[in-house]
Amino acid sequence: MKHKGFSLIECIIVIAVMSIVIGSLVFGFGYLDSANANKCAFAIDSAITTTKAETMSKTEPVNLYLYQFDGTCCIKYSNAADFVADGSNAEVVGAARVTVSYDDGTGKKELTSTPQIISFSRKDGSFSSGPNVIYIDGTDSYEIRLIKNTGKHIIKSV
Fold first, then answer.
1. Phi-psi region at 28: left, alpha or beta (left = phi > 0; alpha = psi -120 to 50)
2. What is the DSSP string of the chain?
3. pLDDT grade, residue 34 (50/70/90)?
4. Domain 8-157: what homologous superfamily?
5. pLDDT per residue over 55-100, tens digit each?
6. CB of 67 within 8 A of CB of 111?
7. How many CB atoms lie within 10 A of CB 92?
8. How many CA atoms, within 13 angstroms, populate the side-chain half-sphere of residue 138?
9. How far apart are CA 11 and CA 18, in angstroms?
């Protein structure tokens, strides 16, 4: 005897399997956003370290420019006075779902196309310019605290 169609048990099994697959995808996308914020935070932290090392080892100071371009967070190293915040030679460190903001002592502000310039003093390695705190928000949130007098920077998950 041939049966046409599905039994109730077969339908329940298919729905259960589909629920598991869809649930895994939803959690997977959340982890991707978390990874993007993590990658952005550690890329900015690493760029600050590189800027300090470059400044201390060269005759001219190197500036780190942190800015927003086409909805992404970009960094660029330069010592040029005529710096332009565009996409050429910039390293994209933050995806569209990651928000970067900063506090320069006057309150928290979102990063824009006007760059935040982070630079160091060659004399003692302290920060000569830059915000006090950089905030990176995605599924996870990070904060990079810049300690002005010592040139140290601390990254932490918040």
1. alpha
2. ----S--HHHHHHHHHHHHHHHHHHHHHHHHHHHHHHHHHHHHHHHHHHHHHHHHHHSSS--EEEEEEETTEEEEEEE--TT---SSTTPEEEE-TT-EEEEESSS-EEE--SSPEEEEE-TTT--EEE--SEEEEESSSEEEEEEETTTTEEEEEE-
3. low
4. minor pseudopilin epsh domain (3.55.40.10)
5. 998 888 899 999 998 888 899 998 877 787 887 788 888 876 788 9
6. yes
7. 14
8. 25
9. 11
Question: Are the CB atoms for 146 and 132 separated by under 8 Å?
Answer: yes
Q: Which of 99, 90, 94 is nearest to 138 (CA)?
A: 99
Domain boundaries, the chain: 8-157
Query: pLDDT digit string (tens) for 41-54?
Result: 999 999 999 999 99
pTM of the predicted structure, to 2 decimals: 0.78
